[in-house]
Amino acid sequence: MRLRQRLPLGLTFGAIALLHAALAALLAVALAHWLQDWAAVLLAILIVAPGLVYHVYRVLAPMRSLFRALAGTVASYRDGDFSFGLSWAGGGELGELVAAHNALGDALREQRLALMQRELLLDTMVQNTPVAMVLIDPGERVVYANVAARKLLGDGRRLEGHAFAALLEGMPEPVREAFERGDGIFTVGEADQEEIFHLLRRRFRLNGRRHELILLRQLTAELRRQEVQTWKKVIRVISHELNNSLAPIASLAHSGSELLRRGQLERLPTALATIEERARHLEGFIRDYARFAKLPAPRREAVEWPQFIAQLREQVPFRYEGPAEGLARFDVAQVEQCLINLLKNAHESGSPPEDVVLALRRGGDAWRIDVLDRGSGMNDAVLANALLPFYSTKRHGTGLGLALAREITEAHGGRIALLNRAGGGLCVTLVLPD
């Protein structure tokens, strides 16, 4: 928007108007002197006034035009249109005002462009993520759904404006049950057609109104890959243990037959004892795997802590720190096996026996159990993998002790954590809710 400055021309007209007014005034005075009448003065005013009004209007016209242009661009900014600018040929305070106004327009235009680019990038990322995302308003209607959500819940159709409950009615029963339960993993289909999903629901306020964000992530391919890797690891571990036991057994059986053939019976008991030891080790190894694979659901019962601690001390030594009384509810056999494994690990860590501690304390609606030692602790890599099944740093370890402890704790609705202690040693924490 361009404006022409007409102030110099206006000043010229103003000077002419003033000259015109002066001549008219002189004429009025002369007439008044001649007529000696007030009518002459009135006549002079009537002659001068139109010229003054006209020339003042001409002088102020450029400024009025500028102010109208400023008001128009401000209205455009309010409507989100930043494509306007002003041009003013003169300087002075009006020139500074126009320059500041144009600078404001440039800044708003750049900010708007940057915001649009960020919104476009964010929308592109959200639309192309494999996680199905659905935003629901307080009226339980869909206000946003990305491409993955449309494919999963609407066969590719747009979901905006639809009632979410109506969309769920057309979904398989496992999906509806999963939404009734809340966050978690669920499966759809059977056998080879089974699909695994993770559901996450979060509520928040948007523009002062409660909304809900639903995230559905398909885990089938990822879990299948992890399952294959786990089976490969299981096969490697089992093969390793079987070879470590069967190879000596086969060799010693052959040696025993040779000793028997040669009549060297005095060395035969040693060979048979070694065969027995390796066979029992293999039996224990298979039994541990079977226990881990067939862990039943916990059978909770009321347990007095003093009695449970005393029973635990009969199987493995430790120093107890905690209350003298208390009542909890858990599966005695499972939790006992879990703590036995942890306490044995503490003794095998290189810790002095007197520094192996079981600490118990109440926290909210749960019991916290800490198994402490002053051994060598764990490095970061071991800490990150210690709770995984079949992971072990011991030469003859099965990698199931900590994994079994985790399985038992989580089956009780609790959690387990490992942390290196200041000054050396390890702290294994179990949290068992009531």
Distance between the termini: 75 Å
Q: Which outline best applies?
A: elongated
- Count of discrete domains: 4
What is Rg?
45 Å
Please report which band the strand proportion falls in: under 5%, 5-15%, 15-25%, 25-35%, 35-45% or over 45%: 15-25%
DSSP helical segment count: 12
**Secondary structure: helix percent:** 55-70%
Please trace the helix and strand order, writing H or E for each element.
Answer: EHHEHEEHHHEEEHHEHEEHEEHHEE
Major sheet details: 5 strands, antiparallel
Report the CATH C-level class of the largest domain. Alpha Beta
Tally the beta strands: 14
CATH architecture of the largest domain: 2-Layer Sandwich
Mean pLDDT: 79
What is the CATH topology assignment of the largest domain? Heat Shock Protein 90
Main location: membrane
Protein name: histidine kinase
Enzyme class: transferase
Subcellular location: Membrane
What does this molecule look like?
It is built from 12 helices and 14 strands. By secondary structure, it is of the alpha+beta class. The chain folds into 4 domains: 2-115, no CATH class; 129-218, PAS domain (Beta-Lactamase, 2-Layer Sandwich); 223-293, Orthogonal Bundle (Helix Hairpins), CATH 1.10.287; 301-433, Histidine kinase-like ATPase, C-terminal domain (Heat Shock Protein 90), CATH 3.30.565. It has a 5-stranded antiparallel β-sheet with strand order 4-3-7-6-5, with helices on both faces. A hairpin with a 2-residue loop joins strand 6 and strand 7 (209-218). Helix 10 packs antiparallel against helix 12. The protein is elongated and about 165 Å long. The two termini are 75 Å apart. InterPro entries: BphY/WalK/GraS-like (IPR050351), HAMP_dom (IPR003660), HATPase_C_sf (IPR036890), HATPase_dom (IPR003594), His_kinase_dom (IPR005467), HisK_dim/P_dom (IPR003661), HisK_dim/P_sf (IPR036097), PAS (IPR000014). It is an enzyme of class 2 (transferase). GO terms for molecular function: ATP binding; phosphorelay response regulator activity; phosphorelay sensor kinase activity; protein kinase activator activity.
